[in-house]
Amino acid sequence: MPKPLGRVVDSGVRHGADQRVYYFVSVSVPGQPRVSIGLAAGRRAPDGTLTTDILVNDVEGADRSPGFHEIGYDERSSAAPVPTFGYFVGPAQRITGTVDGRQVDARLARWSFDKQVVVFWFDPGELAPGERLDGIIARDGAGRRL
């Protein structure tokens, strides 16, 4: 199990006694020296043990370039479904996804290692895990599109 980089983010979603959590880990992509982090969606047991369910990371470019990066969708429909998640680099204060013409607000948390990196996830009651977004937009504190 890779060691989390920085603080583990509790999403507020529970699966039995486990917490749904998000955290960054180190990754290595051959030939891509500017890709060094990946975002994991996992579960934290009451004893603190972490289990990684899905890991997403860039496969080219730079993992800290401005804008959206890989988005994680639960393709498995597992017993512990993973809410749609990802990260954005920049001053995002609000992230909204669109699905079937309806806007859904994501929940946000800044990464403890780099405050320009914003982890986001969608409440599984508003966006079913695995359901694809038609679009996604980030806005700054003044409501301007980033």
Relevant terms:
mainly beta, 146 residues
Outline the structure in words.
With 146 residues, this protein is mainly β. The chain has one domain (5-139). It is 0% helix and 48% strand. The protein contains no helices and eleven strands. It has strands at residues 5-15, 18-26, 37-44, 50-56, 67-72, 85-89, 94-99, 102-105, 107-110, 117-121, 135-139. The protein has a four-stranded antiparallel beta sheet, with no helix packed on it. The chain has a four-stranded antiparallel beta sheet with strand order 5-6-10-9, with no helix packed on it. A hairpin with a 2-residue loop joins strand 1 and strand 2 (18-26). The protein is globular, with a radius of gyration of 15 Å.
Q: Report the biggest beta sheet as strand number plus sense, adding barrel if it closes.
A: 4 strands, antiparallel
Helix-strand sequence: EEEEEEEEEEE
Mean pLDDT: 93
Strand order of the largest sheet: 1-2-3-4
- Rg estimate, integer Å: 15 Å
Distance from first to last alpha carbon: 34 Å
Low-confidence stretches: none
Shape estimate: globular
The domain count comes to 1
Proportion of residues in β-strands? over 45%
Our count of helices gives 0
Q: State the helical fraction.
A: under 10%
Report the strand count. 11
- Overall SS class: mainly beta
Provide a brief overview of the structure.
The chain is mainly beta and 146 residues long.
